[in-house]
Amino acid sequence: MIRVLLVDDQSLIRGGFRALLDAEDDIEVVAEAADGAAGVALAAEHLPDVALVDVSMPVLDGIEATRRIAADPALARVHVVILTNYGLDEYVFEALRAGAAGFLVKDILPEDFLHAVRVAARGDALLAPSITRKLISRYVTQPPGAGVHPRLPDLTNRECEAVTLVARGLSNNEIADRMGISPLTAKTHVNRAMVKLGVRDRAQLVVLAYESGLVTPRDS
């Protein structure tokens, strides 16, 4: 059973999402919160698999709520998905830096919303390759090498290549084709790189790759 926490200051939004989720046999909403501070507290209390967190809320916004959840080792299993009204708005990349696994636009189709919750619960990043590319072009602006990760040298050449391709927006199947390996092996390389670099998920891997200078926007 996938356990979901809803954090949004609009009761109608929460009610609509709850109705969709509660109708599914494999998903249950364990709690709701109307602000980020309450959301963080409820995440600690219920340990949901997925926390759907609005980006703009009173008391504590979604970015800071995400940052607090991601910083707490006891909440490592909680995958935060940011909810936004505007798609690729100014907060999205900041949310990824804070530790979000991805984001959803609130007018998403119901079937896509349910699929996204299941994807997030598995620990996969909720970033389609096309979205990754848009994020790269719009938000990654700092100079290459501005914050080189100390454990990058721990990666094997194949792991480093896989991380580079993830950061360029390729899916596991595309990475497999590019590297001449199976999709399962591609996923293994990506997962091992995440463990070595200490990142929560694929979204954080993209952020790290650009912030460390492993990949630059012009490479993509």
From TrEMBL:
Residues 148-213 form the HTH luxR-type domain. InterPro entries: CheY-like_superfamily (IPR011006), NreC/VraR/RcsB-like_REC (IPR058245), Sig_transdc_resp-reg_C-effctor (IPR016032), Sig_transdc_resp-reg_receiver (IPR001789), Tscrpt_reg_LuxR_C (IPR000792), WalR-like (IPR039420). The lineage of its organism: Bacteria, Bacillati, Actinomycetota, Actinomycetes, Propionibacteriales. Keywords: DNA-binding, Phosphoprotein, Transcription, Transcription regulation. Transmembrane segments: none annotated. One of its GO terms (molecular function) is DNA binding. Residues 3-121 form the Response regulatory domain. This is DNA-binding NarL/FixJ family response regulator. The keyword Electron transport does not apply. It comes from Actinopolymorpha cephalotaxi.
